[in-house]
C-alpha cells in the first residue's frame, strides 16, 4: 500500500497549509489533508487516519472553531464558558489519540512535546545550550517587582501561556500584548497578584524571527523600533506603516546552538523569536513549534512552503526504504548466486 | 539614471547613477570611508543621500557594518506550469473540453476574461461560475460599457463571485475610477474602446510595478509570457493573444503537448537582460515588456515597439511618432488602432 503524507490542519484561515498543499500537488507528492472539522464527519475511530497509510505527519493546527454550536437551555456567561471549555477538552481527547496511534518518529515535530511545551522550560533549556536569554522570573508581589527594578531599568510582563483576545459586551475586542513596567508606573501594580511572568526589558535594535527547518535557520530581521505601535510587540500590526522585514543570517555558532535546542525538544520545524539589543547581542525569547512561516517565507523569498514539501517528500522515500530493505537484500543475494538469471 | 526598488512597500525611486554609486559603495564601507573616498567636498551630498534613505525607511545608521543583513535571494519559482491565463471570450467557443478543464487544474492563479463586445450579466455569471471549486485566486473582467451594468449590479456580481477582484470597462463615456465591495475591488471606466488585442503592449510609467514577484521573475524569465497562456477570440491557444504563433485549437489540443512544446516555452525565457536597449534600462525589472510588437519584427530580442522611453537620454517620447518605428507600425498594421 502506497503511503501518504498526512497534513493535520484546519479548513479556514490557513493560507500556509493551502500553499504547502499546492506545492505538494505540483511536485506530485501524495498527501492527505485532514482538517479538524473533518472529525465531525468521521463516523467512528476507524475513520481516523491510520499508521500504516501514513509516511509522515505535519501537524499544523487542530481547529479554529467547531462547525457546530451547542448551548445550555439556561445559558449564562459562566455555564456557557464551562461548556465551551468542556467541548474543547472533549475534542482534544479524540484528537490527541492520533499522537499515540501514529508512530512518533513519523511526526515532523514530536506531538507530545509540542502539546505540553512550557515557556519557562524552553528558556531554561536554551540557557543550558548556551543561548543567552533575558532575565525571567515569575512573581506575585509589587515588592518583588520593585526589587527587580533596582537591577533592571524596565521590566515587561507577558503571559506564561498564550495571549488571548477578550471581547466586550458590545463586541469590542481587546488584544493582550506585552506591557512595560518601570518606576513611573509601578504604583499601578497591585500589592499582590496572580503569579505572573516578568522579564528584563531589552532595548532592541531589531527583532528576529527565524524559521527552523530540519537543521537550517531561515531568519528575518523585523525593524519595528521606529514605530510606536509596534515598538513593544510587533504583533500590534500597523497596516498603514508596515515594519521593514528583510532576510538575515544568524551567526553560525548561534544557529548550531538553536539546532541543538530544537533537536532536544524533538522538533524538526518551528519559529524561533530572538531580539538584538543596541549593542548587537542576541537574546532568545521563545519557540513556536507550529510556526507561522508565511510571514518569513514571502518577504525573504525563502520558498519555505516548497522546502517543507520537499522535506515531507524525503520522509516518504525514507519510509519506503525501511519497508523495502529485506526485499532488496533477497534480490541482491539471488543475483549473486545466479548471475545469468533475472 | 538608476532605479532604487523598494520591493516591500512597492515603491521605486528614480535616482542619478552617481547617487546609486554612493549607495553601492556604502554597502561595504562606513560613512567616513565613503566621505574619504569621494572627498570632503562631497560630505554634505553624501549625508543628504543617507538622510533620504533613512527618511524612506530604506535603511538605518549603525556603529558597524552588519554582514548578517544578507542580500535577498532572487530565485523565482511557482507551483503551477501556467500561472496566468487570458481568454478573449467568444460565445461560439466551447470552453467545456478537456483542455480547458486540465488547464485550470494546474493551479492557475490569475485569469483575465476579455469581452470586446457587450454581453449580458447572466452570461458573465455563467462563465465565472465554472471557476468555483478551482484554486484560481484572481479574475479580472474586461467588459464593454453598458449603462445597464451600473456599480450596484457590479457590486452584487463581485460579492457573489469573490474571485473577481478587478474590472476594466472600456468604451465608457467618461474616464473614471471607482471602487466596489467595500473599496476592495477597483473598477476602471476607460473612455476608449478595447476591441482587439492590438491595443495591448504599451509600455507606460504608470504600468511599472516594484514588487518581489515581478522583480525576481524578471531576473530569470520574461514577465509578460513566462508560464502564461492565452486563448484567443477564435479559440486558438497562444502565448498571448497578440502573438502570431498558435499551438492548436482549444477543442482539440492536448495541454501536455502545448506545455512541452519548446516553441511555446521559448518566449518565456527571454529576459529583459537579453533584450537590446532594455538591458540598459533602469526600469527593466519593473516593466511589463511585450514580445508581440517589437521595434524590429525580425528580431525577437529587440525593444518593445510601444515603448517611448530612451534609457540613454532618460526621456519619454510619443512612440507612435518616432520615425524609426514607422516601418514596424506598418508591418503589424497598427496604424488604425493608434488614434
Automatic annotation (TrEMBL), chain A:
SUPFAM superfamilies: Glutathione synthetase ATP-binding domain-like
Coiled-coil features, chain-numbered ranges: none
Protein's name according to its UniProt entry: Grasp-with-spasm system ATP-grasp peptide maturase
The ATP-grasp domain, residue ranges: 123-317
Gene Ontology biological process terms from the UniProt entry: SOS response
GO cellular component term, pick one: cytoplasm
UniProt cross-references to InterPro entries, sorted A to Z: ATP-grasp, GRASP_w_spasm
Keyword ATP-binding annotated: yes
PANTHER family found in the cross-reference section: BETA-CITRYLGLUTAMATE SYNTHASE B-RELATED, RIBOSOMAL PROTEIN S6 MODIFICATION PROTEIN
Gene encoding the protein: gwsG
Keywords: ATP-binding, Nucleotide-binding
GO molecular function: ATP binding; metal ion binding; ribosomal S6-glutamic acid ligase activity
Amino acid at each position: 500500500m502506497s503511503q501518504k503524507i498526512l497534513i493535520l490542519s484546519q479548513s479556514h484561515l490557513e493560507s500556509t497549509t493551502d500553499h504547502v498543499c499546492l506545492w505538494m500537488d505540483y511536485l506530485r507528492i501524495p498527501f492527505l489533508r485532514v482538517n479538524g472539522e473533518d472529525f465531525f464527519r468521521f463516523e467512528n475511530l476507524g475513520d481516523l487516519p491510520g499508521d500504516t497509510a501514513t509516511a509522515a505527519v505535519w501537524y499544523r493546527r487542530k481547529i479554529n472553531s467547531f462547525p457546530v454550536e451547542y448551548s445550555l437551555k439556561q445559558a449564562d456567561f459562566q455555564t456557557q464558558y464551562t461548556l465551551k471549555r468542556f467541548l474543547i477538552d472533549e475534542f482534544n481527547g479524540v484528537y490527541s489519540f492520533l499522537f499515540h496511534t501514529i508512530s512518533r518518529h513519523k511526526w515532523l515535530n514530536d506531538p507530545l512535546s509540542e502539546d505540553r511545551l512550557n515557556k519557562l522550560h524552553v528558556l531554561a533549556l536554551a540557557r543550558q545550550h548556551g543561548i543567552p536569554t533575558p532575565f525571567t522570573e515569575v512573581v506575585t508581589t509589587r515588592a518583588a517587582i520593585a526589587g527587580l527594578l533596582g537591577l533592571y531599568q524596565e521590566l515587561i510582563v507577558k503571559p506564561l501561556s498564550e495571549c488571548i483576545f477578550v471581547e466586550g459586551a458590545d463586541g469590542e475586542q481587546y488584544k493582550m500584548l506585552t506591557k512595560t513596567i518601570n518606576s513611573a508606573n509601578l504604583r499601578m501594580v497591585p500589592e499582590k497578584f496572580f503569579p505572573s511572568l516578568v522579564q528584563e526589558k531589552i532595548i532592541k535594535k531589531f527583532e528576529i524571527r527565524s524559521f527552523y527547518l530540519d537543521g537550517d535557520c531561515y531568519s528575518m530581521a523585523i525593524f519595528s523600533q521606529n514605530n510606536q505601535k509596534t515598538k513593544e510587540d510587533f504583533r500590534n500590526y500597523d497596516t498603514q506603516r508596515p515594519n521593514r522585514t528583510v532576510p538575515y543570517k544568524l551567526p553560525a555558532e548561534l544557529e548550531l546552538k538553536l539546532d541543538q535546542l530544537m533537536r532536544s525538544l524533538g522538533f524538526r520545524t518551528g519559529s524561533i523569536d530572538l531580539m538584538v539589543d543596541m549593542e548587537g547581542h542576541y537574546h532568545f525569547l521563545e519557540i513556536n513549534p507550529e510556526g507561522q512561516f508565511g510571514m518569513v517565507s514571502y518577504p525573504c523569498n525563502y520558498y519555505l512552503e516548497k522546502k517543507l514539501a520537499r522535506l515531507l517528500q524525503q520522509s516518504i522515500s525514507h519510509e519506503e526504504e525501511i519497508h523495502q530493505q529485506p526485499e532488496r537484500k533477497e534480490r541482491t543475494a539471488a543475483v549473486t548466486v545466479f548471475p545469468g538469471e533475472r | 539614471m538608476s532605479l532604487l526598488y523598494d520591493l516591500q512597500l512597492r515603491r521605486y525611486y528614480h535616482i542619478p547613477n552617481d547617487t546609486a554609486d554612493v549607495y553601492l559603495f556604502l554597502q561595504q564601507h562606513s560613512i567616513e570611508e565613503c566621505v574619504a573616498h569621494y572627498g570632503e567636498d562631497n560630505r554634505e551630498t553624501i549625508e543628504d543621500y543617507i538622510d533620504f534613505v533613512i527618511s524612506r525607511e530604506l535603511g538605518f545608521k549603525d556603529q558597524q557594518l552588519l554582514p548578517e543583513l544578507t542580500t535577498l535571494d532572487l530565485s523565482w519559482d511557482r507551483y503551477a506550469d501556467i500561472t496566468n491565463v487570458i481568454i478573449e471570450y467568444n460565445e461560439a467557443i466551447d470552453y467545456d473540453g478537456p483542455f480547458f478543464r486540465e488547464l485550470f487544474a494546474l493551479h492557475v492563479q490569475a485569469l483575465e476574461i476579455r469581452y470586446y463586445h457587450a454581453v449580458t450579466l447572466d452570461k458573465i455569471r455563467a462563465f465565472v461560475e465554472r471557476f468555483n471549486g478551482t484554486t484560481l485566486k484572481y479574475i479580472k473582467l474586461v467588459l464593454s460599457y453598458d449603462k445597464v451594468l451600473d456599480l450596484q449590479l457590479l457590486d452584487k456580481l463581485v460579492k457573489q463571485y469573490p474571485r473577481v477582484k478587478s474590472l476594466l470597462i472600456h468604451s465608457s463615456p467618461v474616464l473614471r475610477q471607482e471602487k466596489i465591495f467595500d473599496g476592495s475591488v477597483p473598477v476602471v471606466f476607460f473612455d476608449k474602446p478595447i476591441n482587439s488585442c492590438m491595443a495591448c503592449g504599451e509600455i507606460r510609467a504608470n504600468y511599472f510595478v516594484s514588487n518581489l514577484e515581478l522583480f525576481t521573475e524578471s531576473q530569470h524569465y520574461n514577465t509578460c509570457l513566462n508560464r502564461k497562456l492565452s486563448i484567443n477570440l477564435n479559440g486558438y491557444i497562444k502565448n498571448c493573444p497578440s502573438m502570431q504563433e498558435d499551438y492548436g485549437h482549444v477543442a482539440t489540443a492536448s495541454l501536455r503537448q502545448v506545455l512541452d512544446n519548446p516553441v511555446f516555452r521559448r518566449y518565456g525565457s527571454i529576459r529583459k537582460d537579453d533584450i537590446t536597449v532594455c538591458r540598459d534600462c533602469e526600469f527593466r525589472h519593473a516593466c511589463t515588456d511585450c514580445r508581440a510588437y517589437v521595434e524590429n519584427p525580425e528580431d525577437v530580442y529587440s525593444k518593445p515597439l510601444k515603448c517611448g522611453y530612451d534609457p540613454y537620454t532618460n526621456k519619454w517620447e510619443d512612440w507612435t511618432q518616432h520615425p524609426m518605428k514607422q516601418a514596424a507600425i506598418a508591418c503589424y498594421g497598427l496604424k488604425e488602432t493608434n488614434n
